[in-house]
Write a structure and sequence with these properties.
Layout: E1 5-13, E2 16-30, E3 37-52, H1 74-77, E4 79-82, H2 89-100, H3 139-147
Parallel strand pairs: 3-4
Antiparallel strand pairs: 1-2, 2-3
Length: 148
């Protein structure tokens, strides 16, 4: 929704680059309970190391760490790859936004969601539907009780 602000420092060590900085904006999300749109401000810091996908000797520093069955280490989670001496900042920004997203986006902690019967947004008012629930597996027992 808002312009993206990206600020970082670059540290070089041979062919390894470390980017340390922040990215900030406002994202438009949909609430998981009531399906209404809402704004989420994001201000995320990052510390990422970039290494070339192809080693200086021409061999591939193939695929991401951990794909050979080895366990991922702490350093592997902060490591990314670049090709042809180009670091894709768009991918970096997009990744930071995905990491900042909540698992279940909610417009507010007090969101009441939608009525399970009619679909009305309960944040805007009551819908008038019955709130009592009868287990359909026990409906036959309820009919016996009414008969006696």
């Amino acid at each position: 929704v808002d312009p993206v602000t990206l600020a970082f420092d670059v540290f070089k060590d041979g062919r390894r680059f470390t980017l340390v900085g922040r990215v900030a904006t406002t994202l438009r999300l949909t609430c998981s309970r009531c399906l209404e749109g809402f704004m989420l401000p994001v201000d995320s810091s990052f510390d990422l190391a970039y290494v070339p996908r192809v080693s200086p000797d021409g061999s591939r520093s193939d695929v991401a760490a951990g794909t050979d069955g080895s366990e991922l280490g702490e350093d592997d989670l902060g490591t990314a790859y670049y090709d042809e001496d180009v670091i894709d900042l768009g991918q970096l920004v997009q990744e930071q936004f995905y990491l900042a997203l909540p698992m279940k986006p909610l417009c507010s902690d007090a969101c009441r969601g939608l009525c399970s019967q009619c679909g009305a947004n309960l944040n805007k008012g009551e819908c008038g539907c019955s709130t009592t629930w009868v287990d359909p597996r026990l409906a036959a027992l309820g009919a016996l009780r009414k008969d006696s």
